Amino acid sequence: MPRFLALLSTVLLVAAPALALQSCKKEPSVAVVPAGSAEDIVVLEDGATIAARKGTQDRAMADWLASAEKSSQSFVLGKRTFIPGTAKLSREGLGDAAMLATLLDATADARVALVGHGEAVAAPSLGQKRAEALATFLEKRGIARDRLAVRPDRGKAEPEAQVTLIAERGNWREPILAGGAASAPET
Asked: What is the pLDDT of residue 111?
């Protein structure tokens, strides 16, 4: 029995390093290069970073917030934001709303007025419900209600719009978009 154990331990001592060397002969794995580039990264006011490709709505919002301009700016959430005929956010709309929440969370002095649009002139209540649904989503994501305003649709939206965001930064003592801002479209 002792000879058998000695033989077995010798085989194991030789086999283990041989197998370890075999694993070193594997072809090196190819590193996965992430899509995008360093230019896609935006640093926000609170030091948070987000990745948003140039030319996208997310990037336009992030650049505006990062610039710390004290003027207002409008952004349109398009026809895929809500499930057609409803005030329920679509999969794409959830992503847009989550990005908006992240941007607002990182920029304490930013506020938005939400103007919802129905799919027909006869559906103004749908537009109001859409704006309220987005405001509720943002509240659940930690954005204070006093930073959000829901405005009525005046029927002058872009044809593809489901919600127009009118964002502004600055004085908290004035109501959001008091008297209308010069660069914000009448919606």
From this structure: 85
Pairing of strands 163-169, 148-151: unpaired
Residue 158 scores a pLDDT above 80: no
The token duo for 28 is 């090196």
User: 88: which residues sit within 8 A by CB, 6+ positions away?
Assistant: 82, 133
Q: How confident is the model at residue 105 (pLDDT cuts 50, 70, 90)?
A: confident
Q: What are the phi and psi torsion angles at 42 (to 5°)?
A: -120, 130
Structural domains in the chain, CATH included, are 38-169 (3.30.1330.60)
- Tell me how far CA of residue 19 lies from CA of 6, 15, 103, 117, in angstroms: 20, 6, 52, 67
Contact between 93 and 163 under an 8 Å Cβ cutoff? The reply is: no
109's tokens: 């002095």
Where is average pLDDT lowest: 3-7, 106-110, 172-176?
172-176
Please, what's the b/e burial string for 141-170 (b: 16 or more CB within 10 A of its CB; e: otherwise)? eebeeebbbbbebeeebeeebbbbbbbbbe
- What is the rounded distance in angstroms from the CA atom of residue 44 to the CA atom of residue 106? 6
Exposure on the CB side of residue 169, measured as CA atoms within 13 A: 18
Distance CA 52, CA 99 (A): 10
